[in-house]
Amino acid sequence: MKREAILAAALAGLALTGCIQVKAPDKPIEINLNVKVQQEVVVRLQRDAQDLIQNNPELFPQ
Predict the structure, then answer these.
(1) How many other CB atoms are found less than 10 A from the CB of residue 7?
(2) Contact 50, 56 (CB under 8 A)
(3) How many domains would you assign to the chain?
(4) Is position 2 within any domain?
(5) What is the pLDDT of residues 27-59, one digit of tens each?
(6) Which domain holds residue 39?
């Protein structure tokens, strides 16, 4: 019984190998992360400026 199952699985695998085709894309894959990077920079600069103002109130009178 176990031998028959292995044989059936092997035959099914051989039957499916002809159906798979791998082809490289014509155009290169482009991943655009500019928006995320810009948001991190803005938030980081905003936090740094807020810390600077809070730590040095004499430099920024209100």
Answers:
(1) 10
(2) no
(3) 1
(4) no
(5) 998 887 766 656 666 777 888 888 888 898 888
(6) 31-62
Is the pTM higher than 0.70? no
Does any domain span residue 6? no
Spell out a b/e string for 31-45, using b for 16 or more CB atoms within 10 Å of the CB, else e: eeeeeeeeeeeeeee
- What is the DSSP-derived secondary structure letter of residue 60? S
Residue 13 domain flag = no
pLDDT digits (tens, 9 = 90+) for 5-23: 888 888 777 666 666 677 8
DSSP assignment letter at 62: -
Q: Hey, what amino acid is at 62? A: Q
Which pLDDT does position 3 carry in this prediction? 86
The long-range contacts involving 14-17, CB below 8 angstroms and separated by at least 24 positions, are none
* 15 falls within a domain: no
